[in-house]
Amino acid sequence: MRDCVRIDTRSLAVFRVLMGALLFADVLLRSRNFSFYYTDDGVMPQSLAMEMTPDNAFSVFFFTSDPTVIAGLFVLQALVAIQLIVGYKTRIATVLAFLLVISTDYHNPAVTSYADVLYRLLLFWAIFLPLGERWSVDAAHADGPPRASVAGVASALILLQMFYMYFYNGYHKLEDEIWHTGEAAPKVLGLDDMTFLAAEYIREFPLLLQLGGATWFIMLLGSGLLIVLVGRPRMAVVGMFMIGHFSFAITVRIGAFAFVAMAALVLFLQAQFWDDGKRVLERLGVDDGRVRLLERASSLERVAASVPRFRIDDERYRRAKSGVYTVSLVVIVVSVALVLAATHTPLGTVGAVDDTADSVDDTLSVVNADQPDWTVFAPTPRTTDRYYVFAAKTADGDRIDVYNDRPLTYDRPGQELQQQYSTYRERFYMNSVRRHANDERANGAHIELAEHYCTTWADENDVELTHLNMYQVSEDVTLETITTPEDRETWTSELYQHGCGDNEPTEIEPPE
């Protein structure tokens, strides 16, 4: 069992670098829409963010609404990402990264996705792992050689996180036979509003997609092999999952999910992978390159060793630190066990267990560490394409589509619907607008977006808006219309009517 949950410290080092790089990239990508999504001048004021998050949710952004301070926190997050990459005071960097990540997600919950959920959960479990054991500033400061591997409760938890996600997703997909027949993959790849790059070409081969979809479904149900197998057999299974996620990365615009999952899969690569890789390089005759790489590594180690150490060399401090680590890990394990027992076993019918599990789950949700249902494209995948039309009436009586910046029409805004979103997070945001459009709350994402258009359109286009209606146009995707959207059945749904200023909401008639 120890071999099954053993993680090579070289894999830990690569995982650390990838997680830091993903965090740094995320900060840069989010900064493109900084004012629109993360300040009170945009569509997610702090009051709405707090309303959409659990009670007592933790976010450092909730302590300020000053755009300058918020921008400073973004910069801090980027600096922590660099700290994680180089592995300096790695456990502190991991804790800081986790707190800043959950803070950012709660600062605008309308733009988050399963990629954000998986990333923060992996960071949470990584707190208990020695990410800085190799190839880091911490390793250069260490008094002895690095451990070859780690095997214990902490390594088991982060590996089981991936197994749980895969298997639970496959379990949900058992509920719909569309996954058994393989029809799900071609229909999902037929959704223009969330596919890009290679999807346009791959969807021309529906039978191949059906085979791929059925294979992925079987892999999800058999994901326990990632834990049970070791050595080269495990490498083969990891390779299959890597190929699957890479295919998602070049076809489906779902954010960083594929890259986060691939970073986590690196943890399953044990010593056999690194030993085989070394032998392959030797057979390829790249010894000169290895020598240069080792020389460069030595120079980097000297630079790392020169970084200030700042270590408290006190036995009582070390014992207290070890005690806090052990107690924290025990509490986490017991909490997770309670939640899983209440959710997936008959113990959930026992009142005391169920109440305790609910209390634990509520506590975990405060720090955004609770497990979702992992219903990615499950149980029934969406097979309707969608795009949005925001019909608006101007003070001059003209009718325009402000979302797509054109005269009012309900026709497709383009052949590739994913291009209606400037960033992938805009699609997640519009999903939140659509879901909350029928809420009876006093406020919501749809109201804030409508108000934003009413107040900014005149400034940016010198045109005053009096009324705005939000519509969603849906297209039914079938196996016969995957590549021919013009042949699909379409229908229009009204999401929300809004009156700009003091005007009462009213229906805006579509063009003839």
UniProtKB/TrEMBL annotation:
<feature type="domain" description="HTTM-like">
    <location>
        <begin position="7"/>
        <end position="273"/>
    </location>
</feature>
<dbReference type="Pfam" id="PF05090">
    <property type="entry name" value="HTTM"/>
</dbReference>
<keyword id="KW-0472">Membrane</keyword>
<dbReference type="InterPro" id="IPR053934">
    <property type="entry name" value="HTTM_dom"/>
</dbReference>
<keyword id="KW-1133">Transmembrane helix</keyword>
<feature type="transmembrane region" description="Helical">
    <location>
        <begin position="207"/>
        <end position="230"/>
    </location>
</feature>
<feature type="transmembrane region" description="Helical">
    <location>
        <begin position="324"/>
        <end position="342"/>
    </location>
</feature>
<dbReference type="InterPro" id="IPR052964">
    <property type="entry name" value="Sporulation_signal_mat"/>
</dbReference>
<protein>
    <recommendedName>
        <fullName>HTTM-like domain-containing protein</fullName>
    </recommendedName>
</protein>
<feature type="transmembrane region" description="Helical">
    <location>
        <begin position="148"/>
        <end position="167"/>
    </location>
</feature>
<keyword id="KW-0812">Transmembrane</keyword>
<feature type="transmembrane region" description="Helical">
    <location>
        <begin position="236"/>
        <end position="269"/>
    </location>
</feature>
<feature type="transmembrane region" description="Helical">
    <location>
        <begin position="109"/>
        <end position="128"/>
    </location>
</feature>
<feature type="transmembrane region" description="Helical">
    <location>
        <begin position="12"/>
        <end position="29"/>
    </location>
</feature>
<feature type="transmembrane region" description="Helical">
    <location>
        <begin position="69"/>
        <end position="88"/>
    </location>
</feature>
<dbReference type="InterPro" id="IPR011020">
    <property type="entry name" value="HTTM-like"/>
</dbReference>
<dbReference type="GO" id="GO:0012505">
    <property type="term" value="C:endomembrane system"/>
</dbReference>
